[in-house]
Amino acid sequence: MEREELKKDNGGLDSAHANQREAQGSEYSVAPRTPGGGGRSGSGAKSSKGKTKAKATKATDEYLAYLRDAVTNADIKKLEHSFRNASEADAKAHAKDAKLMRDFLTVYTTSSQDLEQYLDKLYADIVDRALLMECFHRRFGVPVSDGQAKWTRGALRRLYKNYIDLPANQRTMVKDIITDSSTAGSSGWADSNGTIELSYSRGNLNGIVGSGYCDKKDYMYKLNAFDATQLHETGHQVDKWTNARTNAGHYSGSRAFMKISDWKFEGKDSKKVAKTIHDYADKPYAKALSLTEKKIAMQGAEKLVDGEISSEEKMKEAVEEAYNDLGYNTKGDMTSQGWADKANSMTSDAPVGYRKLSELTRILNKSKFYKHIISSMPSKNPWDRGNAVSGMERQIHKAYPGDGKWYSFSNDAYKNKLSRYQFCAPGEEFAELFASYHISKGKAVGLKHKKWFEDKGLHDGGNHYNDDPSNTSV
Ligand SMILES: [Zn+2]
Questions:
Q1: What does pTM read for this prediction?
Q2: Which of 42, 90, 412, 423 has the fewest CB atoms within 10 Å, measured from its CB?
Q3: Span from the CA of 241 to the centroid of ligand 1 (angstroms)
């Protein structure tokens, strides 16, 4: 499966906030309860001004002693009791005690709602990096591992926070979360085995999606870039579903989803794709061409599509090859009667004859047909246009490099967009929708997207995987 990338620049936001948050750590608060429960009130820790790091209270000491005892005796009942009664201060003290945390996780092997809630309470205060990774795994059943870069504590905490609200059956579609090299913005990719890989700006987790393939009026503009990337890549994994009766497919390939932006799969066949682009163009050629020239032009266009050609230089070569393939002389044939009069006319086609290579190339170079092809290759980020290309009945481009598919969508689809990146492919639109919906709790999406997402039960994890008989598995 192709490597899919999403890059989101942070728009130059400075990193002060993230660092500050990291350095600040957390403060102790009053701890009124002890694991023994009941009415005894703890003394609490009052942090005096200028000295924010408070000492453990007597109550907290008692809590930790109680917990140690439960761990030593592997007393699950006692542990559960302690989870339920731990005050914020107790939880913080426990979170910071890496040894006790490790012992505790060794003893407490089964998953339970109590444990989940307890980990949620502890997580933000865990300091040990390996523990943060282990607790993430324990809580969500999804391992996090270091890749080309190491996870930072801040990023792990952010990952965790994002996954708490995600329906369990969606997050477990992810099999592993690893870090790629650090970048200025946030980016990631998802592979076919369930791995997602994330890059992020280590000093700044607070950057917004902002100008990263997003216009100011887009729904996703103000969302956090790190969150958006994590959930976008998670969305790619959730997009895959298995129909009990037939084969695996993608939500994004279903007719109902593709209808939202009026997506159309245009195939991979260069003959068909070239013809389709030609037909979508209001005026494919910059000048009237003879039938022979049109034949050469179409042959050249197929070569552009086939070779994924995106430069004018290579375009010339393709036209020359077309002359040769079809057995025409690159010096042209201007002798046929009737050609000269009509050659420069914009309204009627010259019946026979053809221009020399350099002349025809010059015309094609300025023609919508050719210009659209070479600007629609993946290397040109054609989905990043922001607005519909004028003079085209539909917007058409190649989504991914290599053996990629061509897609088109309606010119109107831009009017209500999540981001520019959604227009790369239906799967990217799904991933953007998934991220935007979950981060904003359904607010930062258009009505059609919202309705479809909720109809499918994707907002609450309801399993509606078998509800879509119209899936076309594109
Ligand atoms: Zn993607």
A1: 0.83
A2: 412
A3: 17
Residue 135 lies in a domain: yes
- Compute, in angstroms, the gap from residue 7 CA to the centroid of ligand 1: 9
28-41: b or e for each residue (b if 16 or more CB lie within 10 Å)? bebbebbbeeeeee
81 is written with which tokens? 């009791």
Is residue 16 situated within a structural domain?
Answer: yes
Q: What does DSSP say about strands 406-409 and 264-267: parallel, antiparallel, or unpaired?
A: antiparallel
How many angstroms does the Cα of residue 195 sit away from the middle of ligand 1?
13
Containing structural domain, residue 66: 6-207
Question: Which amino acid, one-letter code, is at 245?
Answer: R
CA of 152 to the centre of ligand 1 (A): 23
* Cα of 408 from ligand 1 centre, angstroms: 18
- In angstroms, what is the span from residue 17 Cα to ligand 1's centroid? 27
22 and 169 housed in the same domain: yes
DSSP state of 73: T
Nearest to 4 by CA among 197, 268, 223, 264: 197
pLDDT digits (tens, 9 = 90+) for 40-93: 333 333 344 444 445 557 889 999 999 999 999 999 899 988 888 899 999 999
| pLDDT single digits (tens) 127-138 | 999 999 999 999
